[in-house]
């Protein structure tokens, strides 16, 4: 069945009609006015973040095999810090910001208050993040804290737009509530990161360097990244799974519990309040509740298991393993040889096992749809979403990513470079293939040409998978 230019399919992001596929007319092409050009620039903003995230993810996984020796020796090393921030700032945070720029205005029905500021935010963020990674790598601290200061400024710009949209609806449902809180944690994590970098030049922060660093890491990884991932999951999962259940009220309390636990743990690590073990237990329980809520939605789904769902389930396994390792650090000194190895495996399972699996799986459905939306606004040829996705590579990406992460983590814990190094290489291979495939998909938001294979027919169900919900955004 051919696709007529006057029709398009989309997924409705309204909370009341989540996941509903609708068919609506496309406006006839007209000369681009100033307002239409502004709409195109705003629509393409998430793509800018996605393409940067994918490129930096490829850079990060390519670097992992080269830093295994440093990681097994001690995690507080310039090359380890640079590689870690390539994933946290370059890959994960860039992808999350892109998703939020697309999702939040549609979900709250409030357009960005400062669209030009959002474009400036993208430029400042990518420029400063790459500058911070580069100067961390060579161990030069004055440019590092200067780059960190610009990151803080870009985060403030991001918060201005997001909180304008989310603020009036912060208590309406779990996604809005969680994302409002996560932005506050992003501001705190960025500010503390700047102070830690500035402290390397001036030496003014009290307390232990490792515990101060741990506070920053948990504000970022748990307060910003994990809280946002949980919130976005609560928004996306019912739409992708077409679950027969509504999201339980427990989901909101899970987000509050995670936020309270992260805030308490961060302050405890800074030495402001006692109770590191208590706050760790609160965080662990909140993450276990998240796994329970998502598992319930999956069990009551009305869609077949596809690669997005497989990545989500693999991510849940990595999350449970990461929770166990993180909890063990309450009794094992992170400064010891064993503690250092466990801390490294904890980070690998959390950032590359859980969060990366969730982002990769979500990108299979979300990124091509946003590309189609941008092409429609540009007046370029509109083709089926499956035409922009190289579906045959998804099994390879899934297997190599997860085998690589688990093997790398096992090698770190056992102090066996002969295990960790092959795991890093497998991870790098899968990550580079994903970066190349997804980079190709995203490139069609910048060029009028389209894949020739997509021009023949409209296929909402691919031949070799069951991605029944692959619809344009």
TrEMBL record:
The keyword Transmembrane helix applies. Keywords: Membrane, Transmembrane, Transmembrane helix. Gene3D superfamilies: Cytochrome c oxidase-like, subunit I domain. It comes from the Bacteria. InterPro entries: Cyt_c_oxase-like_su1_sf (IPR036927). The keyword Transmembrane helix applies. The chain crosses the membrane at residues 47-68, 80-101, 122-141, 147-166, 178-197, 217-234, 255-273, 279-300, 312-332, 352-374, 395-413, 419-437. Residues 14-35 are annotated as: Disordered. This is Membrane protein. It comes from Candidatus Methylomirabilis lanthanidiphila. The lineage of its organism: Bacteria, Candidatus Methylomirabilota, Candidatus Methylomirabilia, Candidatus Methylomirabilales, Candidatus Methylomirabilaceae.
């Amino acid at each position: 069945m051919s696709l007529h230019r006057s029709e398009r399919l989309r997924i409705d992001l309204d909370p009341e009609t989540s996941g509903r596929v609708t068919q609506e007319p496309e406006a006839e092409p007209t000369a681009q006015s100033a307002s239409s050009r502004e709409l195109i620039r705003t629509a393409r903003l998430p793509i800018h973040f996605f393409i940067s995230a994918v490129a930096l993810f490829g850079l990060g996984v390519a670097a992992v095999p080269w830093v295994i020796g440093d990681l097994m020796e001690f995690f507080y090393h310039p090359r380890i810090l640079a590689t870690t921030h390539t994933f946290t700032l370059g890959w994960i945070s860039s992808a999350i910001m892109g998703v939020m720029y697309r999702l939040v205005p549609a979900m709250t029905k409030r357009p960005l208050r400062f669209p030009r500021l959002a474009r400036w935010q993208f430029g400042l963020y990518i420029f400063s993040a790459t500058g911070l990674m580069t100067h961390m790598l060579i161990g030069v601290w004055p440019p590092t804290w200067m780059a960190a200061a610009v990151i803080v400024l870009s985060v403030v710009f991001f918060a201005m737009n997001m909180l304008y949209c989310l603020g009036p609806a912060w208590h309406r449902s779990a996604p809005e509530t969680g994302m409002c809180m996560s932005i506050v944690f992003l501001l705190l994590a960025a500010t503390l990161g700047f102070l830690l970098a500035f402290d390397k030049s001036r030496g003014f922060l009290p307390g232990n360097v490792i515990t101060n660093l741990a506070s920053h890491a948990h504000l970022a990884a748990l307060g910003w990244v994990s809280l946002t991932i949980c919130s976005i999951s609560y928004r996306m999962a019912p739409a992708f799974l077409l679950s027969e259940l509504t999201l339980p009220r427990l989901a909101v309390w899970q987000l509050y519990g995670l936020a309270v636990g992260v805030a308490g743990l961060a302050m405890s690590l800074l030495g402001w309040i006692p109770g590191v073990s208590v706050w760790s237990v609160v965080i662990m329980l909140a993450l276990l509740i998240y796994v329970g809520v998502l598992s319930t939605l999956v069990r009551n789904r009305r869609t077949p298991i596809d690669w997005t769902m497989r990545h989500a389930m693999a991510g849940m396994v990595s999350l449970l393993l990461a929770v166990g390792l993180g909890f063990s650090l309450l009794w094992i000194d992170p400064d010891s040889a064993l503690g250092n190895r466990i801390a490294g495996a904890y980070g690998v399972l959390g950032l590359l096992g859980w969060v990366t699996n969730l982002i990769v799986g979500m990108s299979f459905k979300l990124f091509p749809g946003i590309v189609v939306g941008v092409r429609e606004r540009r007046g370029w040829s509109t083709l089926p979403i499956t035409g922009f996705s190289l579906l045959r590579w998804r099994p390879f990406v899934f297997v190599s990513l997860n085998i690589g992460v688990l093997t790398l983590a096992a090698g770190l814990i056992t102090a066996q470079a002969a295990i960790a190094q092959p795991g890093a290489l497998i991870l790098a291979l899968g990550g580079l293939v994903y970066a190349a495939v997804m980079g190709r998909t995203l490139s069609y938001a910048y060029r009028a040409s389209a894949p020739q294979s997509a021009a023949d027919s409209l296929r909402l169900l691919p031949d070799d998978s069951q991605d029944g919900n692959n619809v344009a955004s």
